[in-house]
């Protein structure tokens, strides 16, 4: 299964990202705003590159999956801005599948962040959770896995799928490391 191949190949990246996110003290709105900024700095260019390369041709439900607008909303609520990373080069549909794999995995991880944030119901951050809540109840993960495991582009080039996932994880790590380092101090 391609899903297993990606999970194994990116295990270390996924673990580093989870660990970095666990350092953020979400009881402080400035750290939540920093989290959103880090997400935006990676997500905006990734989604832009996917759309520029025709992601809707491999995932027709892409408009339901895209979260840039939700994240923009939350940044405005938190009065935060970001400096997006450069758009990555996604050379083929298999790499796009790998990139979307990471985006969908992070969507599932959003539930953890949301539950952590819910421990502070009086925080102004509660009004900025459109990004974390995006797609709940829509079964986006299982439908993505179905597409991943059956699409010829992914089946014929699993190495490129892994490369796409590595590109995406690398961008999220690059965006979050400075934020987490500042929070740890």
Quick overview:
With 185 residues, this protein is mainly α.
Give the arrangement of secondary structure elements.
Elements: H1 2-9, H2 11-22, H3 29-52, H4 55-58, H5 62-65, H6 68-77, H7 93-117, H8 130-133, H9 140-150, H10 152-156, H11 158-184
Helix pairs in contact: 1-11, 2-11, 3-6, 3-11, 7-9, 7-11
Which terms summarize this structure?
185 residues, 72% helix, globular
Low-pLDDT segments: none
* Main pleated sheet: none
User: Topology as H/E string?
Assistant: HHHHHHHHHHH
Topology, number of strands: 0
Oligomeric description of these chains: single chain
Q: Separation of termini?
A: 42 Å
What can you tell me about this protein's structure?
The chain is 72% helix and 0% strand. The mean pLDDT is 91. It has helices spanning 2-9, 11-22, 29-52, 55-58, 62-65, 68-77, 93-117, 130-133, 140-150, 152-156, 158-184. Helix 2 packs parallel to helix 11, helix 3 (29-52) packs antiparallel against helix 11 (158-184) and helix 7 (93-117) runs parallel beside helix 11 (158-184). The chain is mostly helical. It has 11 helices and no strands.
């Amino acid at each position: 299964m391609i899903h297993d191949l990606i999970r194994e190949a990116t295990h270390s990246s996924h673990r580093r990202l989870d660990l970095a996110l666990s350092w953020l003290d979400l009881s402080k709105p400035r750290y939540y705003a920093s989290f959103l900024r880090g997400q935006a700095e990676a997500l905006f260019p990734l989604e832009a590159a996917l759309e520029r390369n025709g992601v809707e041709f491999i995932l027709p439900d892409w408009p339901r999956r895209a979260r840039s607008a939700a994240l923009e909303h939350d940044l405005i609520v938190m009065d935060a801005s970001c400096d997006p990373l450069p758009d990555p080069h996604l050379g083929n549909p298999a790499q796009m599948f790998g990139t979307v794999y990471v985006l969908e995995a992070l969507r599932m991880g959003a539930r953890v962040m949301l539950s952590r944030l819910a421990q502070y119901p009086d925080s102004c951050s509660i009004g900025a959770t459109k990004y974390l809540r995006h797609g709940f109840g829509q079964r986006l993960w299982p439908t993505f896995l179905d597409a991943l495991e059956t699409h010829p582009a992914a089946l014929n080039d699993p190495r490129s799928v892994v490369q796409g996932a590595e590109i995406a994880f690398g961008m999220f790590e690059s965006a979050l490391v400075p934020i987490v380092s500042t929070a740890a101090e």
